[in-house]
Amino acid sequence: MSVRSSMNQDYTIISRWMHKTLVEWQNALKDNGSITQMYEEYIDFTNNADHFKKFINLLCEYCPNLSHVRLVFSGEINDVPEDGLVEAVLRLPNVQCLTLIDAPSIALFELQNDSNQLTTLNLCGVDKKIKSSTNSLGGLLGSMKKLHSLVYSYKDYNDQIVESLAHLPNLKALTLLYLPRSEFLQLKNCKQLEVLYLYNTYEKVSTEDFLDVFSSMRNLHTLSIVFLEKNMHLTKKFYKLREFCPQLTCLTLNCCLDYFGDFAKLKYLKIDDDSSVQLDKLLTNLRPIYANRLQILDISEAHANSTKITKFKNLKGFLCGKCPKSCYSYFSKLLNLQFLSFEIFEENLSQITKIVNSCSQLRYLRLPLKIEEVGELVKVLPDILSWRSSEPDDPFVLSLGIGSVVGEIEDKLKMHPHGNLLQLDWNGMVFTSKLKELIASLGRNANKETAMTTKTIFQNPCKMAGDGLSLGDRWMSNANYKLALKSCSKKFSLEYDEELINRCRNKTINNTDYELSNQIDAFNFKYDALDEHNEL
Prior knowledge:
This protein is an alpha/beta fold. Helices cover 34% and strands 16% of the residues.
């Protein structure tokens, strides 16, 4: 079987492991290069710089829409890649977003030579040598005047980058993981920020310092704080941020507040708490101010067991952990509800049809269903949608966590008289994408320039409202298929095994969790019968 015929996949995201030779790549990109938006690669000492640069030349010629590159370095201390790899990537004419994972010092040195076109940079792990060099990381970032969005994961308490970020007028979105307290305090000078995500600080922050940091952030419209659980004293004065952040529209916290205060523009709220969220208490606290204001409520860790949800008349999206049967009738009273999601669903399928039938504006439903349950639903759900006067050009989306498309079920849906009224979202991407579009629209105003800036930020590969709070960045997910192959390479010779490569890669792209274990499962699926005949 030829490589082309064996690879029935999308070329939106590509990696060199999809084909063996440059000739095969040239043929593939002639046909598919125009749809390519993202290129990913695993880098170690085995990468031949000359071959890599020739491949980049092909991307320059055939991929005019390629804007995002992700390079995952091995991270091994003694693994020194050849020079010129990052430099070659920066020759791509339209690259704007660059992700570097465990970048060695040589990659950072090359980045400083020609990075003026970058608008988004994701740095997860940086070689310690860069910190002691004359050209510091802070100085490098401070020189990137076009930078709109930065994601940075601290690995050393001595890292100092925030001070230099205050001098970047175009920097609107910032994500910091494991930031030291000293760096947190420097944020008070970043007055230009509109989107801020703070993940974990292991040092205590005083209430005075906390409020002081936000006192000048008048433009902030999206805020995620995931360290309140270890700084519970901050929750008592959190409401004071309303005085400093009048544009705050989207808020994500990892604990509930007794009092949220009156944020005049708050429309999105996510509580991501591992402990049990007391929904009734939360809604009681929110109702006096936000009953007619809140449009999206995400409590994926909690059970929807309160009648008070019906008081939130403008709610367009509701995401929860589990909902008892007795609560389904509540959703029919939410006349603007478009998005509904359950993490756990243990009721019979008739309850799904009742929800769809009673919620007239519901457009996107996400459920953790089994394949056989989906097969049963496609028999009856299209008829219900026809009674709701749904249109084929705007079908109802049933989002699933299954991952791979099941052709037999899709065929049954096509044969149904009203099958064009239902779209099966096998990997959950449609639901996620549409929800993010809704979230991004919440902060837009009549100013077209501001609206365009906001749209650009939300399309960039950084954390945003609606993303999970796990440290595993969803946008760097697809590089894991190569890591899986790398981890198995000592056991088998896999360099030219297209079947395994495709299986690993497709499982990575299609699975919404993006766990490395998915690739290991894919590997074992093919080779588990041979394990006993091979040495580890």
